Amino acid sequence: MEDTIEVILQDHSRVLSTDRPHPAFSACLGALLTGVYGVWSLFATPGFRRVPWRLKVPYLPSSKDQTLNIMKLLEGRTGRLADLGSGDGRVVFAASSAGFRCTGFEINSILLTYARSKAHWRGVPSGQATFVNKDFWKTDLSAYNNVTAFLAPGVMAVLGEKLLKELPDDARVIACRFPFPDWPQQSSAGSGLDQTFAYDMSSVRSHLRKEPNTAV
Ligand SMILES: C[S@@+](CC[C@H](N)C(=O)[O-])C[C@H]1O[C@@H](n2cnc3c(N)ncnc32)[C@H](O)[C@@H]1O
User: Fold this and answer.
1) What's the rounded Cα separation, in Å, for the pair 194 and 85?
2) Residue 23 belongs to domain spanning
3) What pLDDT is recorded for position 1?
4) In this structure, what are the phi and psi dihedrals at residue 138, rounded to the nearest 5 degrees?
5) Transmembrane ranges (predicted)?
6) Which atom belonging to ligand 1 lies closest to the Cα atom of 136?
7) Residue 158 in contact with residue 180, Cβ under 8 Å?
8) Fewer Cβ atoms within 10 Å of its own Cβ: the N or the C terminal residue of the chain?
9) Binding pocket residue ranges, ligand 1, CB within 6 Å
10) What is the CATH number of the domain that holds 114?
11) Which atom of ligand 1 is nearest to 51's Cα?
């Protein structure tokens, strides 16, 4: 009988030991997850404290296809370009190599340093690509005739109001993945998550003027 109980206890403890992870493993996993979260939050959140909650947009880089789609919709255009939230600078670099004079607005100082260093390594002159540590919500964008924005669905209506007030009539706006809710598209490129949308300010304004209760 005693033998049987011992056998049962032995079996039970074996089951328990295989089911429960070793404390050292749990500690390592916890440390790893904390580290990953720490690095992620460093890249995704600095500078965000000053931006109101409803306008916060985290970092997510454009895919290669998305960047190509942006450039397709900018074909034939020239002049100054603002990338609203320039991240690691990939859209600014693509546009500056197509001849635009670009400014990347970015509040994440780590991404900003990375983009500036990349511009330095690549030997891109500052007249072609500049990265500024500025909140674009608080910046007058009236000097730009091209604007690119890969942000979040919840901020597009607010951004639309700002751009309507500030951009010149000959400006083109490229929205990535998330279209403006009430603006008529000029054209679009790509599909799914890489889709980008082009809007010409003159057409947007004349469309909105026809809408009742719209002040343009
Ligand atoms: C979705 S990412 C897009 C990055 C880049 N444009 C691209 O396509 O790869 C949005 C970026 O906007 C930045 N951002 C968010 N709010 C901002 C603000 N108010 N002013 C400047 N940059 C902002 C974020 O830090 C983030 O890098």
Assistant:
1) 17
2) 2-44
3) 44
4) -105, 15
5) 24-44
6) 20
7) no
8) N
9) 51, 57, 59-62, 83, 85-87, 90-91, 105-108, 111, 135-137, 150-151
10) 3.40.50.150
11) 19
Interval between CA 57 and ligand 1 midpoint (Å):
6
Q: Are residues 110 and 74 in the same domain?
A: yes
On whether residue 101 sits in a domain, the answer given is yes
**pLDDT tens track for 146-170:** 999 999 999 999 999 999 999 999 9
How far apart are alpha carbons 203 and 115 in whole angstroms? 34
Q: In terms of Cα–Cα distance, which of 62, 81, 48 is closest to 171?
A: 81
CA gyration radius, the chain? 25
Q: Parallel, antiparallel, or unpaired for β 80-84 and 146-149?
A: parallel
In the chain, the number of structural domains is: 2
Alpha carbons 209 and 169: distance in angstroms, whole number = 14
